[in-house]
Design a protein that fits this description.
The chain is α/β, with parallel strands linked by helices. The chain has four helices and eleven strands. The strands form three sheets. The protein has a six-stranded mixed beta sheet. The chain has a three-stranded mixed beta sheet with strand order 8-7-10, with helices on one face.
Length: about 170
C-alpha cells in the first residue's frame, strides 16, 4: 500500500502546475519564518525540482548562521552548518545539492523541516523509501515540521510502519 501511495503522490506532485507552485512558494517563506522564530539552528533541505521550494528561506537562515542542510554519508543523514549557499554546496551521489566538505558538522539542531511525498493530517509521512529522515529522527527528540503542497495531503491515515516517524507539525502551502 505504501508503494502504491508513494507512486500515486509522486505523479500528483509532478502534476502541480507552475502557477500553483508559484502561489505556494510565495507563501512558504512567511509561513516557515513564523514557525522557526525560536529556533537557533534549523535543519532544512535542498529541494528537488518538484518539491516545495525553500531556497529563499534557506538563504535567509544562512545569512543568520541558523541553517543546516543534510549530506548523505553511507546511507545516513548527517546535518552540516551552511552559511553561504552559493559556495558551500555541491552535488555528490544524489540528485540534490549537499554541503561540501568545507562545512562543519552541526552540533545542535533545534528544528527539522522535512520534505516528503505524501502526508496525512496526523503528521504521518511517506518519503522516497530510503529512510534517511526516519533513521535520523529516531535517534533524537528534535521537533519536526513536515512541509508539503496541499495536493500532498492524503485523506485518511497513512499505512505507517513502526520505523516511520510522524511529524509534530505540518506546513501546508
Amino acid at each position: 500500500m505504501k508503494d502504491e501511495l508513494r507512486s500515486q503522490f509522486i505523479i500528483t506532485r509532478k502534476g502541480i502546475t507552475e502557477k500553483r507552485r508559484m502561489i505556494a512558494n510565495a507563501k512558504v517563506f512567511e509561513a516557515l519564518t513564523k514557525m522557526v522564530l525560536e529556533s537557533q539552528n534549523v535543519l532544512s533541505y535542498y529541494p528537488l525540482e518538484d518539491e516545495v521550494c525553500v531556497l529563499a528561506f534557506n538563504k535567509f537562515l544562512a545569512t543568520q548562521n541558523r541553517l543546516s542542510l543534510p549530506r548523505i554519508e553511507e546511507g545516513t543523514l548527517v546535518p552540516y552548518e551552511v552559511s553561504d549557499m552559493e559556495k558551500q554546496l555541491k552535488t555528490f551521489s544524489h540528485r540534490f545539492l549537499e554541503p561540501d566538505f568545507i562545512c562543519k558538522q552541526a552540533e545542535k539542531i533545534d528544528l527539522v523541516i522535512v520534505p516528503g511525498i505524501v502526508f496525512d493530517n496526523n503528521g504521518g509521512r511517506i518519503g522516497f523509501g530510503k529512510g534517511f529522515y526516519d533513521k535520523f529522527l529516531k535517534k533524537t527528540s528534535i521537533p519536526t515540521i513536515g512541509l508539503c503542497f496541499e495536493e500532498q495531503i492524503y485523506d485518511g491515515n497513512l499505512p505507517l510502519e513502526t520505523h516511520d516517524i510522524s511529524m509534530e507539525k505540518l506546513c501546508i502551502v
